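Narrative of accomplishments. A recurring question from our advisory board has been how the design workflow behaves on a single, concrete structure rather than in aggregate. To address it, we present the structure tokens for one chain from the evaluation set, followed by the sequence designed for it. No filtering or post-editing was applied between the two.
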């Protein structure tokens, strides 16, 4: 059944596909299946591998009654759960069954994301828009001939307009990152060079806050499969957060280390730590830091120009690179944001 032509055809299909024989043994698994599962399942028993009742029922229907069937399959990986629509299609003349996996996560999540987005963005924009409307009305009436009040109001209006501009920019960035999240990068990127470039870019902000950056392990290459532009954005967000919330007149520590085997990723990885010497974060907030628009101190975040989207962008970029984000914080000592990305 698993001849050379079959292998060639299935290898060219971009979605995960399994070819299972009458005894439920996997005869062929194309490359996307290997990427999905993290190993080549050829030769394994499909019942043992897949285990989810709906999928096994669909396989039985295709094998025993020669009827196509659909099922929902949820795969739990390092980056979270991914939902697939599995289609079991019988091969003619009792030749087994072809199992295809269509990623449906974005479709299932889209309605929830849309509702959350509308609620959040409405809340975020209401305050500055209300303020701008009030200032405009005041400038047109009682403050029309008051140069001092006019100058003060225009400064505030400029600040609010800039914050809305940053929010729109971050929303566009988040949208682009989410669109690419399930497409794994195929080119190499040097994390050490990226970190050095980001630190150089932020030199002005560091001087303004009287902060210095201490680098460790950034002289030697740290190669991963990665999207260089997105990785630059990732470390810009993390180091800018350290500048904003780490406290003035202190040091930001950025270090890179190679790990022979990351326990959760189950493969070699490169770890980048961004550590500040700020007040630290209450453990209560840690699980929610990467949620959209989540802020520990809403008033302070707004004053610092934060949009509440920076860490959400970081999370999605790391997910695309099949890595993980680890956050440790001790109040009164500081916080460490660790980015761990597979190196192979």
């Amino acid at each position: 059944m698993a001849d050379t032509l079959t292998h060639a055809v299935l290898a060219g299909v971009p979605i995960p596909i399994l070819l299972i024989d009458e005894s439920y043994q996997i005869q062929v698994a194309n490359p996307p299946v290997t990427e999905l599962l993290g190993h080549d399942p050829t030769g394994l028993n499909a019942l043992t591998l897949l285990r989810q009742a709906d999928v096994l029922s669909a396989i039985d229907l295709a094998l025993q009654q020669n009827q196509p069937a659909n099922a929902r399959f949820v795969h739990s990986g390092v980056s979270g759960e991914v939902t697939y629509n599995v289609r079991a299609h019988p091969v003619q003349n009792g030749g087994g069954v072809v199992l295809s996996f269509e990623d449906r996560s974005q479709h299932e999540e889209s309605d929830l994301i849309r509702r959350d987005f509308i609620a959040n963005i409405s809340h975020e924009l209401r305050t500055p828009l209300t303020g701008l409307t009030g200032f405009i009305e005041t400038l047109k009436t009682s403050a029309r001939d008051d140069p001092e009040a006019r100058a003060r109001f225009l400064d505030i209006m400029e600040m609010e307009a800039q914050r809305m501009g940053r929010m729109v920019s971050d929303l566009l960035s988040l949208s682009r990152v989410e669109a690419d999240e399930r497409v794994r990068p195929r080119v190499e990127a040097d994390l050490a060079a990226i970190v050095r470039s980001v630190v150089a870019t932020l030199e002005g902000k560091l001087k303004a806050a009287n902060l210095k950056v201490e680098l460790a392990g950034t002289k030697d290459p740290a190669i991963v499969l990665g999207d260089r532009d997105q990785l630059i954005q990732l470390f810009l967000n993390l180091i800018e957060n350290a500048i904003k919330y780490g406290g003035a007149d202190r040091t930001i520590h950025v270090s890179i280390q190679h790990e022979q085997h990351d326990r959760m990723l189950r493969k070699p990885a490169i770890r980048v730590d961004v550590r500040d010497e700020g007040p630290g974060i209450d453990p209560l907030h840690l699980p929610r830091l990467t949620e959209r628009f989540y802020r520990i101190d809403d008033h302070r975040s707004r004053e610092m120009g934060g949009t509440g989207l920076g860490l959400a962008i970081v999370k999605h970029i790391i997910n695309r690179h099949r890595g993980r984000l680890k956050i440790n914080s001790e109040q009164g000592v500081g916080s460490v944001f660790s980015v761990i990305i597979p190196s192979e």
